[in-house]
Every structure is written in C-alpha cells, then in structure tokens.
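Case 373 in the screening queue. Each case pairs one protein sequence with one candidate compound; here the compound is protoporphyrin IX containing FE. For every case the pipeline is the same: read the inputs, emit a complex structure as tokens, and attach any notable structural observations.

Predict complex for case 373.
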Amino acid sequence: MTEHAADLERRHRAIRIWLYGIAVLVTLMVLLGGATRLTDSGLSIVEWKPVTGAIPPLSHEAWLEELEKYKQIPEYEQINKGFSLDEFKVIYYWEWGHRLFGRLIGLVFFVPLVWFWWKGWIGPGLRGRLVAIFLLGGLQGAIGWWMVASGLVNRVDVAQERLAVHLVMACFILIAIVWTARRTLPQPEPPDRRLRRTAVALIVLVTAQIFLGGLVAGLKAGLIYNTWPLMDGDLLPPFADLFSMAPAWVNLVENHLTVQFVHRIGAYLVVIVALTHAYDARSAASPIRTGAFVIAAITLAQVVIGIYTLIWVVPMWLALVHQGAAIVLLVACVVHAERANPARQPLQTGETAGTESSLSLEGEGYADPVNRS
Ligand code: HEM
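Case 373 output:
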C-alpha cells in the first residue's frame, strides 16, 4: 500500500469509528427512551426548551415550580396525585436524562463533523449524507416534543402512533449512520439479485415491525392477551373483535387486540422472509451466507424474547431486552444489505482524495471483499 492510500484508509477508519460510536449512542438512546416510557416518566417535563432545558432545576424553589407545572396536566390529576417532590424528581430525571443524552449525541456528531470538514476529510459524496443525518437528529428532537405534547392534554399517556413514529425515526437515523459508515469500506462483489433484494426487504420489514412494536408498547397492548400462540383462545381472533371500532382503520392504531395481533403477524412474516433468505444464501460466498444465518438466528431469538415479554406481562427488564434485540436485528440487517448491495466504489474522503485517490485505491486491494473490516 502506498503512503497516500494508507493515509486515505486512516481517514476512512477515523470517520467509520466516529460513525459507529454515534450508532452505539443512538442505540443507548433508544433504550433510555424505552426505560423513560416504562417508568412512566415521559410527561414529567411539560415544556420544550432545546437549549436552556439542559440545566435541571437548581434550587428548591425551582423544583417546586417544575412540580407546579406538572400538577396542571391530567397525568398528575389521574395517576400521580399527591406525588412528593422526591417522587417527582425521579421521573423528572429520567426524562431530563433522555433529553440531555439527545443533546450529547448532537454534540458528539456536530463537533467532529466540523473538525473533519475543516481538515478536508469529508468528500462530496459524504457531505450531503452527513448533513442529512444531522438534520434528521434535529427533526427527531422536534418529533419527541410533538409526542410529549400529545400526552399533556385530555390523556395520561402519549399518543401511541407518535411514539411509534419517534421510535422509527431513531431507526432511520441508525440505518443512515450504519449504511454510510459501511459505504467507506472497500465494496465487494454483489451476490445474485434475489439475495440483494431480500436483504433490503428485511430492513423494510424489520423497521415496519419495530413501528408495530411501538404501537403495542404505546397502547400498553402487551398487558392483555398474555398467551401464545392463541389470543383469547383463538389462533385467529374473530373478525368482529378485530374490527370492532369504526372506521375500520382506527382498529390498527387503537384496538388493543388488533394492534397486538398485527405485531404477531408482522413477526411471523419477518421469520418467513429471514429463513427463506438464509436458505437462499446457503451456497453464497461466506460473508453473505454468514450474515443471512446470523439474521435468521437473531430473528428467532427476538421472537422467543417477544413471546416471553408477552406471557410474563411485560417485565421492564425483558421489555428493554426485546427493544434492544430489535435494534440489534435492524443493525445486522443494515450491515448485511449494504454488503449485498455494493456501490461501484467506496465513498471518498476529502478533496485531496478525489478521483486520483479512488484510482489509486483500486490498485490497493480496495475491490477485495476479504479486506472489509
Ligand atoms: C422480529 C420480531 C419482532 C420485533 C423486531 C419486535 C420489535 C418490537 C419493538 C421495537 C417493540 C417496542 C418496544 C418499546 O418501544 O419499548 C415491541 C414491543 C412488544 N412486542 Fe415485539 N417484536 C417482535 C416480535 C414479537 C413477538 C413474536 C411478540 C409476542 C408474540 C412480541 C411482543 C411484544 C410486546 C408484548 C411488546 C410491548 C412491550 C412493552 O410494552 O414494552 N414481539 N416489539
């Protein structure tokens, strides 16, 4: 490897490590969000102050003021009436921690981005993607507030469809980060068309299944029908019960039975596609075959975890494992699909790299699939 190519590889690696670090932080953020929801803490801060909100109340009076504001919302009236200041502080710190962690991720993304940009390490192909990811992060903060706002009047929990949108937006951010990081690697030979397509289909299906899981969680629909494989004694619940609300589509969002049933069907669909994909990949080249088998294994594990989450009536630790495993499955699908759908060449770092560097990289084993790390 020439010195120039080695230098480029160092830049690619630095950007990859940074992006993988962000992906880990986003995963932790999803879990922190899940814990905030499961401890019923999400409505404790009734305002959105993107900058000044980073500082929690610092005096006794300031705490009392925050508690006063909380006392105005239905959740306090109907669920937490008579809460002591110490009890309030617990739920406040969960929500505050979740929001602060979001700001931290923004910072850990933005500062290195400016640094790499200033050093000329971010090539034209990377620029737009990184700026888009940053903007998605900002949008996610706004969606978080839009979700919280839905729980401040006339109800004691946030709207489940907004919770699901918030969760799926986190998934979009994660998909974009992991895909972009992998695109700075040498691009291997693609497998056949069917494998390429089903690999991408798995990302779509798993993301949709995560959305459906968000609806189950937001509606607390995992607290009833705690049997498997039967639901209320039926494999297929009666049509009249599945569509008992009008108009019919409302059942997909509001009806506990339907929401849970659709999440079950979604899981079976993911299993069928993951197993078919693994079967198809049995004679593909090694990284694709292994990736497909790993995805099938995680999918089966996730289904077992989901079933126990349900029949043990959603213990907090297991609900978090179920949520975490969903993210692990999604990331595995992204890594796999990116590998199965290579670009013609890796994303380039800075202007100095340009066309010249991509030419020199080809002679440096950059088209060699084995070189990917
Ligand atoms: C590929 C398969 C599956 C995936 C990717 C998946 C994903 C998810 C996700 C992301 C959530 C939301 C977690 C949260 O926001 O806290 C969820 C919730 C839930 N899922 Fe699944 N799930 C799968 C299969 C299953 C199965 C087979 C069952 C049971 C038959 C199940 C039962 C539940 C229950 C009860 C909840 C609500 C948990 C809570 O209230 O915190 N899941 N799922």
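Case 373 observations:
- Residues 190-341 form one domain.
- The radius of gyration is 23 Å.
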